[in-house]
Amino acid sequence: MSQTGKDFRFPEGFLWGAATAAHQIEGSPLADGAGPSIWTRFAHTPGMTHNGDTGDVACDHYRRWRQDVALMRELGLKAYRFSVSWSRILPEGTGRVNQSGLDFYSRLVDALLESGIEPLLTLYHWDLPAALDDRGGWLNRDSADWFAEYGSVLYRALDGRVKKWVTLNEPWVVTDGGYLHGALAPGHRSRYEAPIASHNLMRAHGAAVQAYRADGAHEIGLVVNIEPKYPASDGAEDAGAVARAHAYMNEQYLHPAMLGRYPERMREIFGDAWPEWPQADFELIRQPLDFVGINYYTRSVTRADDSYPLRAGAVRQPLGTYTETGWEVFPQGLTDLLLWFKDTYGDTPVYVTENGAAFFDPPVAEDDRIRDPLRTAYLRKHLRAIHEAIEAGVDVRGYMVWSLLDNLEWSLGYSKRFGIVHVNYETQQRTPKDSARWYGRVIASHGSSLADPLPD
Ligand code: PNW
Questions:
Q1: Is 297 labelled as part of a ligand binding site?
Q2: In testing the pocket of ligand 1, which one of 170, 300, 352 has its CB within 8 Å of the most ligand atoms?
Q3: How are strands ordered across the β-sheet holding 312-314?
Q4: For the purposes of burial, counting CB atoms within 10 Å of the CB of 396, is it exposed (0-12), middle (13-18) or buried (19 or more)?
Q5: Which of 100, 139, 337, 358 has CA atoms 20 to 30 A from the CA of 391?
Q6: What is the DSSP letter of 410?
Q7: What does residue 183 show for φ and ψ, rounded to 5 degrees?
Q8: Mean pLDDT along residues 54-72
Q9: What is the pTM of this model?
Q10: Where does this protein hold substrate (predicted)?
Q11: How many CA atoms, within 13 angstroms, populate the side-chain half-sphere of residue 314?
C-alpha cells in the first residue's frame, strides 16, 4: 500500500524518457566533414562562456554513443529526445549533404530501436551552421527555405525509424538570448532584431512542418519553454507586467503556431520595433501539429519595473527553494501551465519534453553512488504535478527528464550539472546518480512508485 494512498499510475503507452542536445553532449564538432556552427564560433570567442568552456569535447558522445545507448537501456528508458547538428548534415547549411553526418545519426537511431527506445528527434537545438549566420542567420527571410531543405534531408533518411519529430527547441530562448540580450549565440543585442528573428524562426517552423507533410508520414510538433507568471501584488501595474511577460514568453510562439496571430501586447512591448507582418506569413506559420512539447523548469512572480523592453521583472521568493541556475522549484506551476495550454489551444497532445534541475552533487562515493536527493525530490514533485493535470483532462503523452547526462550548459559551461547521470569530464566516466536509479523504478512501475516515500 502506498504512503499517500493515491494511485499515480500513468496512462498506457505513456512515454518515459530523457533528453539531450547535440552541442551540449557530442563534442568533435568538426569531425567527419562537419561545418562549424554558431556555437562553435561563439564559445571560441574570448569572454563569451564561463571559464572559456567550449563544446569541443563535451561528453564525447559523438564517439561514446554506443555506451550511452547501453546506459539508457540499463536505466529502463523508453524514449530518448536528442537533437541533430545541422552543420554535420549540411556543412554550409544548404546544398551539399555530408553523408558521414547522416550516418552518425542513422546508426544512433538504429541502436536506440534495437534497445527498444523510441527516438524523438529535434531538428534545431540552437546550433545554426555558421555559414548561414554569415548570410544573416535568422534575420534572413530565406531561413525558412534553408530550414525546410535541411528537414527534408533528414525526413527522407530517417522517417519511419524516427516517428516523432520536433522542428525548433525553444524559439523564445533562441531570440531572447541570441538576438535581444546577447548571452547566447550569435550574441546580438537589438530590440529591432529580436522580433524579426522570432518571426523568421516561426516561418521556418511552418515551412519544416509543410515539408514534413510531403516527405514524412508520422508526427511532428514544436517545443516551447513556458513559465507561468503570477503577480507580485494585486496592483494594476503588476497586473500589466504579468500580462506583458506572459505574452512575451508564453504566447509569442504558441499564438502564431496554434492560432495564426501574435498576442496584442507585442506592440506594447516592442513599440516601433514591432513590424507589421504580411498576413500570408501566418498561413505558413500555422500548420496543424501532431503534438506540442513543453519544457518546464520554473515559474516567475512578476512585478512592473523599468527594464527594457518588457518593463517586468521577477521577484525572488524569500521562502522559495532555488536550484543552482537560480530557478525557483514550483511544481504547481506545471499543472497550471498544462491546464492553461488546454484551455487556450485545445486538445493537441502534449509531451513534457524537458524538466529537471541543476543542483550541487557530491562526488562519487566509495560505494559508487551519487546521492542527489534534491534532484529526485524535484522530479518526483513534477511528475506528480503532471499526473494531476492528466487527471484533470490534459492529454499528456510523455515526459523527458533534462538531462540524461551532465553536459555543457551553454554560456554557463560545465559549471551546472543537470544530469541524472554524472559525467567525470576528465575520464568521461558515466555514473548514474541516485535520481537515475529512482527514475528507472518509476518507469518500471508506470508511475505507481511515485506514491512511495523518497528513498534514503
Ligand atoms: C533549456 N529560461 O534552456 C534548453 O532546452 C536546454 O538546452 C538547457 O540545457 C536547459 O533548458 C537547462 O537550462 C532554457 O531562461 C534556458 O527560461 C533558459 C530558460 C529556459 C530554458
A1: yes
A2: 170
A3: 229-231, 300-304, 312-314
A4: buried
A5: 358
A6: G
A7: -75, -15
A8: 98
A9: 0.98
A10: 24, 125, 169, 297, 402, 409-410
A11: 14
Eight-class DSSP state of 456: -
Closest to 118 measured CA to CA, from 91, 80, 67, 147: 80
The single residue of 26, 118, 227, 354 carrying the catalytic annotation is 354
Cα angle 159, 161, 166 (rounded to 5 degrees) comes to: 55
Dist CA 227 CA 295 (whole Å): 9
Q: Could you give the C-alpha distances from 366 to 1, 229, 362, 426, in angstroms and in order?
A: 34, 43, 12, 18
Cα→Cα distances 232→229, 238, 308, 309, 364, Å: 9, 7, 19, 19, 41
| pLDDT value of position 240 | 98
Strand runs (DSSP E) across 114-218, as ranges? 118-124, 164-169
**Would you say 327 is a known binding-site residue?**
no
Nearest CA, atom 17, ligand 1: 225
Q: pLDDT tens digit string along 164-198?
A: 999 999 999 999 999 999 999 999 999 999 999 99
Domain annotation for the chain: domains and CATH numbers = 15-449 (3.20.20.80)
Nearest CA to 84 out of 59, 109, 67, 118 is that of 109
Q: Is 118 annotated as catalytic?
A: no
Closest CA to 170 of 365, 420, 375, 410: 410
Residue from 353, 410, 417 to probe ligand 1 pocket by mutation (most atoms less than 8 Å from CB): 410
d(CA 338, CA 223): 14
The ligand 1 atom at the shortest distance from the C-alpha of residue 170 is 5
Report the alpha-carbon distance of residue 351 to residue 354 in Å, rounded: 9
CB atoms within 10 A of CB 444: 12
Segment 425-446 mean pLDDT: 98
pLDDT tens-digit readout, 29-53? 999 999 999 999 999 999 999 999 9
Is 414 part of any known ligand binding site? no
Reading the block at residue 98, the C-alpha cell is: 555530408
Measured in whole angstroms, the distance separating CA 199 from the mean position of its chain's CA atoms is 19
- DSSP 8-state secondary structure symbol assigned to residue 407: -
Catalytic residue among 26, 118, 170, 251: 170
Examine the residue annotation and report whether 283 is marked as an active-site residue of this protein.
no
Is 24 annotated as contributing to ligand binding?
A: yes
Ligand 1 atom closest to residue 356's alpha carbon, by position in its atom list? 12
Contact criterion met (CB below 8 Å) for 333 and 227: yes
Q: Is pLDDT at 4 greater than 90 in this prediction?
A: no
Residue 1 has pLDDT above 70, yes or no: no
Phi-psi category of residue 224: left, alpha or beta, with phi > 0 → left and psi -120 to 50 → alpha: beta
